[in-house]
Amino acid sequence: MLPALLADAEQHLSPRIYRLLCLVAEEWRSVEEEIERLDNEIEMIASQDLACQRLITVPGIGVLIATAIVAAIGNGAAFSRGREFAAWLGLIPKQCSTGGKPKLLGISKNGNEYLRRLLIHGGRSIQHRVARDRHAFGPWLTELEARANTNVVAVAMANKLARIAWVVLNRQQEYRHAKIAVENAGFGLPVLDTPVPDAGQGSSINSLRSALTSV
Q: Which DSSP string do the residues of 181-215 spell out, in sequence order?
């Protein structure tokens, strides 16, 4: 398409403007080639790393997110549970205590901003592209969508993705569509299909607090 546009532009633009347009088009092609080269390099790295291969089995996580997670935390040994990893990414509510009463605010946005953004995009992709009846978190996600806006749901799903990713790395097992605990097994901690308590028709911040404190 671009060559055809340039050929048409040559007939309607001055020679100087046409040369400038050709320079921009050449730079565009160069950038696209560099992006393709980097994409291939990332895919090659992911294909040779067992941890990345396990993470790719998680819905919403592709080679870009998988390689970013492994580069950031390795096997996840720095965290004792998935909730700590989510907190490190800034995907949990901030707390403000007044008069001895804790108050939950929006997400803290601490930690690795790039990885947090990738996981939120992964959460959004799950909302629109994943067959929920195949996953334990499906009912939870559908229920949350009924009472929270799409951005709140995406952040809550990103929180859950981070915790699932930590479990996959920590146990060195692929993601399973059946129930899988989001924390260490045997400690009576919640599983992925644990329903989210109803928060009523409050604000988006209240919905986010409820979602993130229940995953």
A: BSS-TTS---BTTPPPPP-TT--HHHHHHHHHHH-
